[in-house]
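Input/output pair, single chain:
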Amino acid sequence: MSTVTPVEVSASEGIGRMFRFGWVFGLIWLFYLAYPLGEVLALPHLWQKVLGSAAVVAFGATFLIVIWGFRTANRSGRRVDVRWAWFGLIVMGSLIVVLAVMIGSQSFGATIYIAVLAMMTLPTRQAWVLVAVLVVVIEVVPRIVPDWDPGSFFAFQLVISAVAAWGITQVFKRNHELAVARQQLADLAIVAERERVSRDVHDILGHSLTVITVKAELAGRLIEIDPARAAVEIGEVEALAREALSDVRSTVGGLRKVDVAVELGNARTALASAGIDADLPSDADVVPLRNRELFGWTLREAVTNVIRHSGARHCRVDVQASRIEISDDGGSIDDGGCIDDSGNGLRGLAERVKAANGTLTVGRSRTGGFTVEVECR
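Output:
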């Protein structure tokens, strides 16, 4: 027996439901063995009746064992080994030969069981080859052996039963494929959610810790020159740390929403603390609701880069309905004054922009520094 994945176990639940009654399901279909059993019991000699009845019982028992093994394997997450399936089918075929010697072509009705089991336990090509062989045997042998009746409809019944069993297996196969697709979508959703959380936490902490660092450095310089101002800065550091912690908790819980208007206020404070002259719009009312969160993330990431990497003296933010641009006059990209587009922050921003069907442009600003532009359709 070979193992299968949890997805395949889930996909096999349809088969398990069909066989939820186990041996009872197979036992119901053994009703049709009453016909060859009746022929056996009509034989003239006692030894023929005993031998024939034993063959019928053994045939039914083998059928039940294969059904039971098929059901148990699927419910426990295993596949029925093809070799074991063939072994059971060969045993059943051998018993049919024994019955055929005793009661003639009336034993061929039992070939339906072989056809159905073949469809359920064998690969499709092997199953259809076996069905074709059985049809040839049923149609040819009665016409060769004297006193055998070639006019029965066993071949027709066998083909119909095989087609029905094949249809059922195809339904199971489609259910399996759907289960695999659902599992893949679930896995992708988990990965996407993890990436979202990590991206949000990175952006939130990157900005907050940058501002905290700037304010802590300023407080350190002021502590001897202007203790009162230093105390104010330290108080703001504490407030920012608490706010960052709250933002991380909200982000992990999926509750936090970034808005460009709020980020404009944060940017103004952060740039002022870093001693960078800021040219910011007074509000962001022109930005429609669909773009406000994306533009907020863009502004947060870009301002963080300006403070952390650029060494700029001036930062300009231009906000329009479908476009936002942040530029500075710091060190150029070629001079290493700003991070390149391989940074985690810009990579996360690129993913956000792509998800919103927007365009991200990163490059040199007109004043020789760094510029980040996002445009939405």
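Strands lie at 277-279, 314-319, 323-328, 359-364, 370-375. Confidence is low (pLDDT under 50) at residues 1-22, 332-342.
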